[in-house]
């Protein structure tokens, strides 16, 4: 197809990540001389995706006027230090909790990358001489000066053509939908949409009108189980304790760690908990829990609930204390990053305890394709880390009842609040099967015309007639 050129009466929408995959979210919106990006995340999972983090963006970062950040997960914010290092000087707009959580996550990401590069160089399991991090802690710290926080529903004017506001998406603390007005056209970008009845967060805010909608599809092909997550967790704990084993839970530091601590605190308060210690061995998880407590108006927990959550586990920050707990063979529950086993302290526990049948690994969140967590879910007999293969003899359990992403039914329920179908609907942030399943479901149930976003494809929307073309 011949290349189409944007004219001054058109808005262009381009997916530089998060299309055909759940990671690397970057949505470029261009109108006249204005360029903004919604989210700026790292690719994770499959190697063919991870190597994209080393690619130069197809645009000059210095040409961007602003970045709008939906939330603080690494696949949405993790590329920001690179963007700034490569020339971006504009504002990064987000909510107050997202600013605080992004500081934790970006610094930790830089630290992990530095440590993995150092380990690869020390033990020689790298093809690169020397291996280098994508960015450093110093790069991450430098990016924080660009953050400009806002409250929900606060209109922010970028220029005469663009303004936006952030609405609660119900996904994690401070997560937001982006309602963007571009020359009179109303764009709504969901980022990651939360459940209709989240455990700790307020449910997503409903919207009834948009000219163009970008909707995520992480769980676009399925329904979450209806089991009580507290009962599900209780059963795994009791089974593992009955074997005198260790329960290792690779844990996302933001949201999932706090949800698990909340459930454990409830089990303890009900007197329905075995005599085994619980450790949150995650400096980032500890910091994220503090942020949750500091932003009391942004979630559903009261002060008593926060205190109970905070006392549910022994908090482990120092590496020396972590090493002592790793070496201890006694029954215990470990919550440690990272959630998809892509790095972090959980690897040291798996290194020591994955090969014992009495132990359990509980995967309590989405596992992207190509991650060690996905390999375990799919029954791998061994996984590779620290430069060698490790046999999987521990029991592998998965817990989907805590997902912070809307499932297919949640998405459709949320969309039914629209008074009319948006003129243009794009599905992103999903693996191909999930995205296509949601596309078909929306066409069949709501009779909406839907486009599955393609990576790097540019979609042109006319103003004010809203006719769309793609190249």
Your description of this structure?
By secondary structure, the chain is α/β, with parallel strands linked by helices. The protein has 2 domains: 10-222 and 406-470, Ribonuclease Z/Hydroxyacylglutathione hydrolase-like (Metallo-beta-lactamase, Chain A, 4-Layer Sandwich), CATH 3.60.15; 229-398, Rossmann fold (3-Layer(aba) Sandwich). It is 30% helix and 22% strand. The protein contains 14 helices and 23 strands. An 8-stranded mixed sheet has the order 6-5-4-3-2-1-22-23. A hairpin with a 2-residue loop joins strand 2 (26-31) and strand 3. Helix 4 runs antiparallel to helix 5 (137-143). The longest helix has 28 residues, at 96-123. It starts with 9 loop residues before the first strand and ends with a strand. The relative contact order is 0.15.
What's the CATH superfamily of the largest domain, by name? Ribonuclease Z/Hydroxyacylglutathione hydrolase-like
Characterize the main sheet. Answer: 8 strands, mixed
Overall mean pLDDT stands at 93
Any idea what the shape is?
globular
- N-to-C CA distance: 7 Å
Question: Which bin fits the share of residues in helices?
Answer: 25-40%
Count of alpha/pi helices: 14
Structural class per helix/strand content? alpha/beta
CATH architecture label name of the largest domain: 4-Layer Sandwich
Radius of gyration: 22 Å
């Amino acid at each position: 197809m011949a290349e189409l050129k944007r004219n001054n009466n058109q808005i262009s929408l381009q997916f530089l990540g998060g299309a055909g995959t759940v990671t690397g979210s970057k949505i470029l919106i261009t109108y006249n001389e204005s360029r903004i990006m919604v989210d700026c995340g790292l690719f994770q999972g499959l190697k063919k995706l991870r190597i994209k983090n080393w690619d130069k963006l197809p645009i000059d970062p210095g040409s961007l006027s602003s970045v709008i950040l939906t939330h603080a997960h690494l696949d949405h914010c993790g590329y920001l230090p690179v963007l700034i290092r490569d020339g971006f000087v504009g504002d990064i707009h987000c909510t107050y909790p997202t600013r605080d959580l992004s500081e934790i996550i970006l610094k930790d990401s830089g630290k992990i990358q530095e440590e993995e590069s150092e380990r690869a160089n020390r033990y020689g399991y790298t093809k690169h001489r020397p291996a280098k991090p994508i960015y450093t802690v110093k790069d991450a710290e430098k990016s924080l000066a660009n953050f400009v926080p806002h409250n929900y529903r606060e209109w922010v004017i970028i220029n005469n053509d663009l303004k936006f506001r952030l609405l609660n998406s119900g996904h994690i603390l401070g997560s937001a939908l982006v309602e963007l007005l571009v020359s009179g056209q109303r764009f709504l970008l969901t980022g990651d949409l939360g459940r209709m009845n989240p455990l700790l967060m307020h449910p997503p805010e409903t919207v009834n009108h948009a000219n163009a909608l970008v909707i995520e599809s992480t769980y676009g092909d399925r329904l979450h189980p209806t089991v009580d997550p507290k009962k599900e967790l209780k059963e795994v704990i009791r089974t593992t304790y009955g074997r005198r084993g260790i329960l290792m839970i690779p844990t996302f530091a933001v949201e999932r760690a706090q949800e698990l601590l909340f459930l454990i605190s409830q089990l303890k308060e009900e007197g329905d908990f075995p005599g085994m210690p619980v450790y949150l061995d995650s400096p980032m998880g500890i910091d994220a829990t503090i942020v949750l407590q500091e932003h009391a108006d942004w979630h559903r927990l009261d002060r008593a609930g926060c205190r109970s959550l905070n006392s549910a586990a022994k908090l482990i920050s120092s590496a020396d204390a972590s090493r002592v707990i790793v070496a201890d063979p006694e029954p215990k529950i470990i919550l440690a990053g990272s959630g998809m086993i892509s790095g972090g302290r959980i690897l040291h526990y798996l290194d020591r305890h994955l090969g014992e049948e009495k132990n359990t690994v509980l995967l309590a969140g989405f596992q992207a394709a190509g991650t060690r967590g996905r390999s375990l879910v799919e029954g791998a007999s061994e996984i590779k880390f620290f430069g060698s293969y490790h046999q999987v003899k521990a029991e592998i359990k998965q817990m989907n009842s805590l997902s912070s992403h809307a499932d297919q039914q949640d998405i459709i329920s949320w969309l039914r609040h629209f008074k009319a179908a948006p003129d243009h609907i794009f599905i992103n942030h999903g693996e191909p099967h999930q995205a296509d399943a949601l596309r078909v479901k929306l066409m069949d149930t709501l009779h909406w015309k839907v486009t599955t976003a393609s990576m790097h494809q540019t979609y042109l929307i006319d103003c004010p007639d809203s006719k769309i073309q793609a190249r």
